[in-house]
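Sequence in, structure out.
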Amino acid sequence: MTDYQNYRDLAVSFGAVAAEYDRGRPGYPAELFDTVERLWGRGLKGARVLDVGAGTGIATRLLAARGAEVVAVEPSGGMAAQFLASSPTLPMVRGTGDDLPFHDASADLISYAQAFHWTRPELAVPEAVRVLRPGGAVATWWNVYDETVPWVRARAERLAAALPDHYRGYGGISDHTRHFAPAGLAVERAVLHWERQVTVEHVLTDLTSRSYLASLSPEERAPVLAAEREAMTAEFPDGLVVEPFSLDVTVAVKQD
């Protein structure tokens, strides 16, 4: 099995933990969408947006709330079912960024929230260029745990030790300038910082939805989650956790 096939297997694993994904994953601050608009040079209101790798619709719902005419694109059956349960009024189609099921020049913005790294860029970038209208853009963004914070770094070290064949961290995952610039897109990038306060149990739900745990059987996940519950409870005895994120945003604009 090739590394690429292994990677696709990880992507498929999300369907089994779609409910945990929807409950546990962080959303995005309003500053993210302000930044996308600034880097793009136009507003989201009224824009035709394809939210690719939409998952359970966390970003899709926020884009719609900004006034975008958004269509979700999701390959996983499990994630799509959760999307329809969580966002019944929003349109969704099954598909991937590598083969977008849309006409040429039919979208103003293509967004990838926590999702571009699941594509094959040699396919996804030309597909984006094909589907975008002149002046349209691709926007990719990632919430990445801020490992400059000691407890976050300690957790990453525990997970790396517990899951040496699965946990890889997030280093470099969000910088895809190298894929967009050669395609003739004008690329801008920004990094935002924000926090959310959640319970220890919420943190564990979020962890369950991460690919390095989602790809394991429930029996394999259980001892890892138990160890994390013990460590996090010791770190946060009141049961409340402030999670710090770096939010990496890239916007690549198709020239007129």
